[in-house]
Every structure is written in structure tokens, then in C-alpha cells.
Design a protein that fits this description.
elongated, seven-stranded antiparallel beta sheet, 2 domains, alpha+beta, Aminopeptidase, Pnp Oxidase, Chain A, eight-stranded mixed beta sheet
Length: 385
């Protein structure tokens, strides 16, 4: 590898992001984004951050000696970006609707939409020539109830989905790369790693034969180009007729903004997929704004683990952003039996347009339809009451 030298100047470093909550002088809440942030210990866990410029947040912290740190995740980025690009000195940051809570141990404002929050008291601050470095003792950690069963010694980032800052751009956290000590083993070093927790089990990808997979083993993400080859090879290996062009077409549609293609991972490996088209393009609802779920599949070796259910949960959640109902088409031969049962259990009902074949409704009493993959029944589910 060949290197070059750069003069010290603007330093690049991928950074975590938090919405820092403080009390204004009149008691109203104020939030801003801080990315110069890290953790240390001083008779307990501490959060350290550096605040530059003439930010109202800095003024509030120096006066109040307390703040909250609300982790920015993919689904709160819309709010964080608003806070980070709006000056509190100019006007109150109340254009977008959001929920303000109060801290339990420290009297600071919290963001109700945040999944992970620290309540902190400032125990030391250091002036740095126009900036200030604060060390805040963590007095309370508030997390979303859904994370209560998570092993706090092995936090699953792909489940929390924190956003990462790199100058002027936001990024998501990628896939799990492995357990501590695993890469050392891959390099041929066999001795044990003394600091590896006893409960770490390396890269064991043997799926459970039945029952839901543990939540920390599972995540849903957007489909990536590399998934096309993986799913094509896996489906051919299990006896399905599959062509990579099917996935490449979905990826093009996602790039064009026509659909959102989701992949379910089990322990870091692609296990299933589904696509949510934001407008129906065929069938009885072609040309309407009704979202449609298409091409849902879970690889056979990952079935009966709750992966299909979780994929559908996410697909329906996305569809619910755009409409109060969603539709799908299911095949009618026995190969679709498990899908048919699942859709009914999830609340889908036939839409009343009858059987469709090759994109057209079947005419009663005609016999030109064949019970193949193109014979379908459209079903609909109400998402919002």
C-alpha cells in the first residue's frame, strides 16, 4: 500500500452523533447535534464532548451544568438534521413536531422519539480557546422498552441502528463483521483471547430448527447489490429456478425510488427478502397510490424462525407511511400454502376481484388459466383504523 502525507488541518474521523438537550434560561427545551463526543470513566461512566462556536447549547450547559444526550439513529435523523441546521439563537426550534420528556434523575429535556438517552451532570469543563470541553457524569440511562432483553455486555448495533457522521454527510452502521478474536483466528493464530467474554460463541451460523430467532441475531436492512448473487446461488441450491436479473431489476427500481427492497439477515447472513412498491403497477390497483408488497421469500434453511414475520412487520410499517392499507398477490397452488396461511393470520383478506392470471382477471367459467406461479389472488390489509 502506498501512502501520501497531508498537512494537519481539517481532520477526518467517523463520529457518533447525539442530540444534546439543555434548558434555556426561560425553561424551554433546546436541542442541537454534537459529534465531538466520547466516553470515559471518573468514579463511574462519563460522557465527554467538545462544543465550539457561540452555540446556545454551550451557554446553557455552562449555566445549568447538566444536559441530556439523545442517540441519533436512522429513524430520528430527520429530527436531528433539523436541529443541526437551525440556530437556537435565532429562533425556537419548534417547526417540526416532536415529543419532549423530562429526565428522571437530572432535570433536562429528553426526546421521546430517541431510543437511547443519557442524563448527565457536568462535573468538569475546560475552556479551549473559543470552545469548551465538558465531562458529564452519567446519572441515568433511558432506553426503549423493546431493548430491555438485550445483553448489555454485547450491544447489537445493527438493532439500534445508530447514525454516523462524516463531514457534511450521514451514514448508517453496516453489517456485523464478527466477534472479538474471530479475525485473529482467521489469520491462523489459534491461542485464546483472554478478554473474550465466555458467552461469546464466535461465528456459529447454525440456525435453530424451530421457534423465533433471538432478536439480536436478526436485522432488516435495505437490499444491496451483493445480495443479488447470494440469493441467486442459495435459491438455485435449494432447487428453485432463479435468475440474478430478478434481483438486479429490483435494485434498479429501488435506486429509481420506485420501491424499498428489504433483506432479513440472520447472524449476518442474508436469509430472506421482500419488496415494497410505493405505487401499484399491475393488477386491480395499477396506477393508484396503494403500496404493494411483492416477491416475498425466506430461504428454506431459515424458515420457522420468525424471520418471515419480522420481514412482513417492517414491510407493513414502511407501507403505512404512505397509505392506510397495503395489498399483495399470492399464488394459488400448494407451493404457496404457507404464505396463504400467514397472510390470513396477519389480517389480509381477498379484495373481491377474483383470480388473476398473467396480470389479467380470469373470466368466470373459462379454462385458459393454469395453476402456475402466474395464477394469483389479490389480498388487502387495513394498516390504520
Amino acid at each position: 500500500m502506498e501512502h501520501i502525507d497531508l498537512q494537519p488541518g481539517f481532520v477526518f474521523s467517523p463520529q457518533p452523533m447525539y442530540m444534546i438537550g439543555t434548558n434555556n434560561e426561560d425553561g424551554t427545551p433546546n436541542f442541537c447535534i454534537i459529534t465531538w463526543i466520547g466516553f470515559s470513566a471518573d468514579n463511574g461512566p462519563c460522557l465527554m464532548m467538545t462544543i465550539g462556536g457561540t452555540k446556545l447549547t454551550k451557554t446553557n450547559i455552562l449555566r445549568e451544568k447538566r444536559f441530556s444526550a439523545n442517540m441519533i439513529t436512522e429513524d430520528t435523523l430527520w429530527l436531528a438534521d433539523y436541529f443541526g441546521t437551525t440556530r437556537g439563537e435565532d429562533r425556537a426550534k419548534n417547526v417540526l413536531p416532536y415529543t419532549v420528556l423530562r429526565g428522571k434523575m437530572v432535570d433536562v429535556p429528553l426526546i421521546g422519539e430517541s431510543h437511547w438517552i443519557y442524563e448527565c451532570e457536568v462535573i468538569r469543563h475546560i475552556p479551549l480557546g473559543g470552545a469548551v470541553r465538558c465531562r458529564g457524569a452519567v446519572r441515568n440511562i433511558r432506553i426503549e422498552r423493546a431493548f430491555r432483553e438485550m445483553d448489555m455486555d454485547r450491544i447489537v448495533l445493527t438493532r439500534i441502528r445508530p447514525a454516523v457522521y462524516s463531514p457534511y454527510r450521514y451514514y448508517s452502521v453496516g453489517e456485523l463483521l464478527g466477534e472479538m478474536g474471530e479475525w485473529k483466528t482467521r489469520c491462523g493464530v489459534s491461542e485464546a483471547v483472554s478478554s473474550l467474554p465466555e458467552k461469546a460463541d464466535g461465528m456459529s451460523f447454525s440456525p435453530a430448527p424451530s421457534g423465533d430467532a433471538p432478536a439480536e441475531d436478526f436485522r432488516v436492512r435495505r437490499m444491496q447489490p451483493s445480495d443479488a448473487r447470494i440469493f441467486t446461488e442459495e435459491e438455485i441450491a435449494q432447487g428453485w429456478y432463479t435468475d440474478i436479473s430478478k434481483f438486479e431489476g429490483r435494485l434498479r427500481d429501488q435506486e429509481a425510488g420506485k420501491c424499498i427492497s428489504l433483506v432479513a439477515e440472520y447472524r449476518g447472513r442474508p436469509a430472506g427478502y421482500v419488496h415494497v412498491y410505493l405505487r401499484s403497477t399491475e393488477g386491480p390497483y395499477a396506477g393508484t397510490d396503494l403500496p404493494v408488497i411483492v416477491d416475498f421469500a425466506v430461504l428454506e434453511k431459515y424458515r420457522r424462525m420468525g424471520i418471515g414475520r419480522r420481514l412482513m412487520d417492517e414491510a407493513e410499517r414502511i407501507a403505512g407511511r404512505y397509505a392506510d392499507a397495503v395489498c399483495l398477490a399470492v399464488g394459488l397452488h400448494s407451493g404457496y400454502g404457507s404464505a396463504q396461511r400467514m397472510y390470513v393470520k396477519r389480517g389480509y383478506i381477498p379484495d373481491g376481484t377474483g383470480i388473476w392470471y398473467n396480470g389479467k382477471p380470469c373470466i368466470p367459467y373459462e379454462t385458459i388459466c393454469t395453476a402456475d406461479d402466474d395464477m394469483t389472488l389479490f389480498m388487502m390489509k387495513k394498516l390504520h383504523s
